[in-house]
Specification:
Layout (H helix, E strand, L loop, with lengths): L3 E7 L5 H18 L2 E7 L3 H11 L3 E4 L10 H9 L8 H8 L1 H10 L7 E5 H5 L8 E5 L9 E3 L17 E6 L4 E8 L2 E10 L6 H5 L4 E4 L6 H17 L5 E9 L7 E8 L9 H8 L4 H11 L5
Parallel strand pairs: 1-2, 1-3
Antiparallel strand pairs: 4-7, 5-6, 5-7, 8-9, 8-11, 9-10, 11-12
Helix pairs in contact: 1-10
């Protein structure tokens, strides 16, 4: 059945360009599927957004925004108030998952292993009052590895607290050596795990969205016991964080002492990217789900919890 589908895109976070890239693929897929795709570029003017949605009266909203305000429960709350069915996680799931400090605490309570870590002021971290290297500094509420710094030793440059563009408090975690593992969950079911091997450095913003910067190994070539655990923990994280629709959980797999190694949960993305280099479409394709079928599933799965 043909549906009128509003595609929320752009936004005003540090991930605006990622969102626009994801949205282009989604709009193309909607056209192939026979739906009426309506691009809606979201700005800080909520009156304009509300006017656009009230004017077009979409059957479904595909929320393709990434990062703050679009992925942390803010836009979800507006859509709930308007009574519109939308894709992926709701207000609670979005806010829980996007707060890395809260997400790791909740997952740890459910028996999911997380790295040693704590929340601290960036100034204290840089003064050496919090943790000795190696450790990782992360903004608490950002995505796409924005602001992530890996401090391997005393010589590694630290961020400048005076020019830090994120919250004053950061999440500091013990650095886990090993491999990057990512698991996609669709409708509470983990559909596969992929390993990412950056050619240089770590899987940062550039490596995620620049072709040729990282190797994608699907399925992740890790011990079958670790693979099964990654899928199990991703499903558990999806559930405990109240996610719905599609999510992607990220792990570090320490096999430096041999396999099976130890898996560590890092975070859950409640609104995974759908760009040409994004991981969820790649994992889905390996299971026989095309990009268009993935988008169709999102349209059908959309809901509103008022």
């Amino acid at each position: 059945m043909k549906k009128k589908v509003a595609v929320l895109m752009g936004g005003f976070s540090g991930e605006r360009e990622v969102s626009l890239s994801s949205a282009q693929g989604v709009l193309k897929a909607l056209q192939e599927l026979g739906h009426d795709g309506i691009p809606v570029d979201v700005t800080r003017c909520m009156k304009t957004l509300i006017h656009n949605l009230e004017t077009h009266k979409p059957d479904v909203v595909l929320n393709i925004l990434h990062g703050r305000w679009g992925e942390d429960g803010c836009i979800q709350g507006l859509l709930e108030m308007m009574g519109l069915s939308y894709s992926n996680s709701g207000v609670l799931g979005s806010s829980l998952a996007m707060n890395k400090a809260v997400a790791r605490k909740l997952c740890q309570l459910k028996g999911i292993r997380v790295p040693e870590g704590l929340v601290a002021k960036l100034q204290d971290v840089c003064e050496g009052k919090v943790m000795k290297p190696p450790y990782v500094i992360k903004p608490i509420g950002e995505g796409s590895s924005l602001g992530v710094h890996i401090i391997l030793d005393e010589k590694t440059p630290l961020p400048d607290p005076n020019s830090w563009p994120f919250e004053d408090e950061v999440l500091v975690e013990r650095y886990i050596p090993g491999r990057e593992i990512h698991v996609a969950v669709m409708g509470k079911k983990a559909i596969g795990a992929i390993e990412i091997k950056p050619h240089t450095g770590f899987y940062d913003y550039e490596a995620k969205y620049t072709d040729g910067k990282a190797a994608h190994l699907m399925p992740a070539p890790i011990h079958e016991q670790a693979y099964a655990q990654a899928l199990e923990w991703a499903e558990k994280a999806h559930k405990v964080l109240e996610c719905r629709g599609i999510s992607r959980s990220d792990f570090r797999y320490d096999d430096t002492k041999g396999e099976p190694g130890e898996l560590y949960y890092l975070e859950t993305n409640p609104q995974p990217g759908l760009t040409p280099l994004s991981l969820v479409p790649e994992i889905a394709a390996h299971t026989g789900i095309s990009y268009a079928q993935l988008v169709q599933w999102m349209v059908e799965d959309a809901s509103c919890r008022r």
